[in-house]
Design brief:
By secondary structure, the protein is α+β, with helices and mostly antiparallel strands. It has one domain. Helices cover about 55% and strands about 25% of the residues. Strands 2-1-3 form a three-stranded antiparallel sheet, with helices on one face. Strand 1 and strand 2 form a beta hairpin. The longest helix has about 40 residues.
């Protein structure tokens, strides 16, 4: 399996095999506004790496939505009591 790293900017996400990512390519990506995403994975190919990344971020998004729901109700009750 190969290690893959992801870089993103406002509109695009690029995936690179870790061993192919040179210092010059990193500088080029930085100059184009890309930033390294805090995710790295092992996969057979780029398509599988992208699928793994999407599943990871979907799971995190769902967890954040649940946290927000759990946090909003007590915050609303506290605000209602405090500002009454």
């Amino acid at each position: 399996m190969k290690n893959y790293i992801f870089y993103s900017n406002d509109i695009a996400v690029n995936v690179y095999e870790k061993k192919d990512l040179s210092a010059a390519l990193k500088e080029q990506l930085k100059s184009e506004g890309f930033q390294k995403m805090p995710f790295e994975t092992k996969a057979q190919d780029e398509a599988a790496a992208i699928d793994i990344m999407l599943e990871h971020f979907k799971a995190n998004t769902a967890a954040l939505e649940e946290y927000t729901k759990d946090y909003c109700i007590p915050a609303a009750i506290f605000s209602a009591i405090y500002f009454s």
